[in-house]
Every structure is written in C-alpha cells, then in structure tokens.
Write a structure and sequence with these properties.
Blueprint lengths: L7 H20 L4 H8 L3 H8 L7 H11 L3 H5 L8 H11 L2 H10 L36
Helix pairs in contact: 2-3, 2-4
Length: 143
C-alpha cells in the first residue's frame, strides 16, 4: 500500500461519508457551489468528497457539518467498528424522534432515583427518562 492509498475499508468509509454529505446537501436544496460557499471549500473539493475520493480533515468535516446544520456526530455515526458500543448508542439516540431524544438527553447525568427537579423519586415512581441513571464517566451533582 502506498502512502496515498487507502485500505478497502478506508475507501468504503469515505464513500459512505460522501454519500451522507451529498444526501444532506440535496435534501436542503443546496448546490455544490452554494454549500462550498457556506463551508469555505471549492465545488471541486465537494465533487471529490461526495464521490468518496476526498479525504477530509476533521476541521473540514466540522465546517461542512455546520454549513449543513447538522452535528459532526450525525455525519460519522455508524462508520466506526460495528461492535463499538459508543457508536451503537449514538446511532440509537439519533434514530429517536426529536422529543424522545430531548427526554433522553435531559436524563443523562442525573443520578438514578432522582426526578426531573433533582428530588428523590418516590418509591415506585418512574420518571420520563425510563429510569436511566447517570452515564458512566459523568460526575454526580454535589460530589
């Protein structure tokens, strides 16, 4: 493999990322020229990226995400190893309807057994987050 060539899975990743960018651009009714102006890239670069030939830097990807009005996560979710639990969690969360995603996000970081206002939940009470406790690695309030 030469320095500029990619392994097969790398090429597949760039092809899928390009497809996602093209689909988002088209759904927003943008031309490559218009998106390029918003993101500060040339239409020729977008042709390469959308065709799976352009290898984007993280900064360029972030500029394109911002220009399309999506998060960086929305562009790359599902492109990692299939058994990555973080990637699987992000994909499932992004697949939720917006109101359910907001409810899920409001429960993250809240210690188990608290209601939405941070009060201890009454016995047998299930709050809207489905009983989710705090996410691993997030600090507990007051600790």
């Amino acid at each position: 493999m030469t320095k500029t060539s990619l392994p097969q899975d790398g090429h597949a990743l760039l092809t899928e990322l390009g497809r996602r960018l093209r689909d988002l651009r088209q759904r927003r009714g943008l031309t490559q020229k218009a998106l390029g102006e918003r993101a500060g890239v040339s239409p020729r670069f977008l042709v390469q990226v959308e065709g799976g030939e352009g290898n984007l830097s993280v900064l360029r990807l972030m500029e394109l995400a911002e220009a399309l009005g999506v998060s960086l996560t929305q562009l790359v979710v599902g492109l990692g190893p299939g058994d990555d639990p973080d990637d699987q969690l992000a994909a499932r969360a992004l697949a939720l309807p917006p109101e359910e995603r907001a409810a899920l996000l409001s429960t993250l970081g809240r210690p188990a057994g608290e209601d939405r206002l941070g009060r201890p939940a009454r016995r047998g009470q299930v709050h809207r987050g489905g009983g989710l406790g705090r996410a691993p690695g997030l600090p507990v309030r007051g600790a």
